[in-house]
Amino acid sequence: MTRWDLATQLSYKLGITKEEADNYLIAFMNAIKKGLDEDGKVVMQGFGSFRMKEYDSRMGKRPNSSEPIYIPKRTKAVFSPGKELREIVNHAEVESAIPASEYSQSSVFAAGI
């Protein structure tokens, strides 16, 4: 799903234009970036949390030649899903294992997706 797909869903659910919805998504992403920059973490109850994680430098191998390479120390943003999101995802995995003919499409949207 792309940002534009999310904007389309938001515009439909909120009754606003896709451009307005996209602007809200951009503002949301900028707020997450700012929170990570200032506090190193952003927590959204029921959804999950973003945090900054430092990775030490290490030696690795180039995939095509197995030549050793140096991988420098770096910091990455990581996401940890919250309990509610994990339950939705796990429920969706169970449903995806069931043939489509055995459940209605409305059950897929029961979680509000």
Would you give an account of this structure?
It is a single chain. This protein is of the alpha+beta class and 113 residues long. It folds into 2 domains: 39 residues; 63 residues, HU Protein, Chain A (Irregular), CATH 4.10.520. Helix content is 46%, strand content 25%. The strands form 2 sheets. The chain has a 3-stranded antiparallel sheet. It has a two-stranded antiparallel sheet with strand order 3-4. Helix 1 packs across helix 2.
Give the secondary structure arrangement, pairings included:
Layout: H1 3-14, H2 18-39, E1 41-44, E2 48-55, E3 58-61, E4 68-71, E5 74-81, H3 83-96, H4 105-108
Antiparallel strand pairs: 1-2, 2-5, 3-4
Helix pairs in contact: 1-2
Poorly predicted sequence stretches spanning 5 or more consecutive residues: 100-113
> What is the architecture of the largest domain at the second tier of CATH?
Irregular
Helical stretch count?
A: 4
Provide the CATH top-level class of the largest domain: Few Secondary Structures
What count of domains describes the coordinates?
Answer: 2
Helix content: 40-55%
Major sheet description: 3 strands, antiparallel
Calculate Rg over CA atoms: 20 Å
Which descriptors would you attach to this protein?
three-stranded antiparallel sheet, two-stranded antiparallel sheet, single chain, alpha+beta, HU Protein, Chain A, 113 residues, 4 helices, elongated, 2 domains
